[in-house]
Amino acid sequence: MRQSASPVGDSTPAGLAANRQEILAGLMAAQKQLEPKYLYDERGSRLFDEICTLPEYYPTRTEVNLLRTNAAAIASFIGPRAEVLELGAGSSLKASLLLGCLDEPAIYVPVDISADYLEQQAAEVAALFPRVMVRPVLADFTDALALPRPLTRERTVVFFPGSTIGNLSRRRAAALLSTLAEQMRGGALLLGVDICKDAATLHAAYNDSRGVTAAFNLNLLARLNRELDADFELDAFEHDAVYDLQNERIEMRLVSQRDQVVNVAGMAILFRKGEYIISEHSHKYDPDDLARMATAAGWRLDQCWIDDSERFSLQYLRAPTIS
Ligand code: AVI
Fold it and tell me: Helices marked H in 29-168 — which ranges?
């Protein structure tokens, strides 16, 4: 039953050259901003894996514990012969935990924008679960997603862990939930989301003492240099992440340390000292607010698991039935 773990898809959706116009527009806007998906080239993906192991970065281990502690309940909600579609497939650990607790899972379809990384993660899962058909899809899951052929919607559970939904604006998150509810009629969604909490905990999680998050953020400039013929001096920018209480989100920034001109794909871009590029927003959600947003998008909440310290939530949602 096992298939090749090579990704389906013919281009790297997040390749910078293919997105030149959008990137230049972001760098020339009054508030410079780039899409967070560009953080994930191969090195960025590795650095993100390292972030997930840091003592300050609580989301990963909290979610992993939630998956472990509630494995039996999750398995009984999902049922036998499940077809698991993972959005923004990160490290294979969470997928392995989920597949490991299910009754004869049939298919695993990881969807990600980082080709090499996707292939490696898929190969790891395929090796661990030889009876599961593994079909990686190279795609940006925020674009319309064509469901790979073998998936039947009734048994499909979309696994969207890691609070990746938090990297979309609230408006885009609501729109994605609506699209998914329609696309997944008859299926379900297991959604992991970071909860609003005190600013000190959040600040530490995104400004870690070993500087891994800083390296992850600055890697975006190295990627622009390599893929868009830019000449960012990495020493002339610094990582910062601030908690915006009003919008309940972390804002990750690349801050110019001096007045300077940087060339990107033939365009000269002026930076004043202290001016910054926003490289990521990471929204935090009160579980009730998130459930309201999901319900408005057409989902029905079956169960919500929250850890004892109320740091992270895992929600099991049902899509509308097939009419
Ligand atoms: C992938 N995403 C949910 C992470 C987050 O927490 O927003 C990315 C990240 N950025 C800095 N640290 C981790």
Answer: 42-51, 58-69, 71-78, 92-101, 115-128
Cα dihedral 201, 203, 208, 209, rounded to 10, equals -90
Residue 104 in 3-state DSSP? coil
pTM over 0.70: yes
- Condensed to tens digits (0 to 9), the pLDDT of residues 34-68 reads 999 999 998 998 999 999 999 999 999 999 999 99
| CB-CB contact of 192 with 313 (8 Å) | yes
Residue 90 Cα: closest atom of ligand 1: 1
Token pair listed for 224: 């622009």
Angle of helix 42-51 versus helix 212-227 axis, rounded to 10: 170
Task: Answer yes or no: is the C-beta of 219 below 6 A from any ligand 1 atom.
Answer: no
Contact 273, 258 (CB under 8 A): yes
**What would the pLDDT profile of 201-235 be if each residue is shown by its tens digit?**
999 999 999 999 999 999 999 999 999 999 999 99
Is any atom of ligand 1 closer than 6 Å to the C-beta of 167?
yes
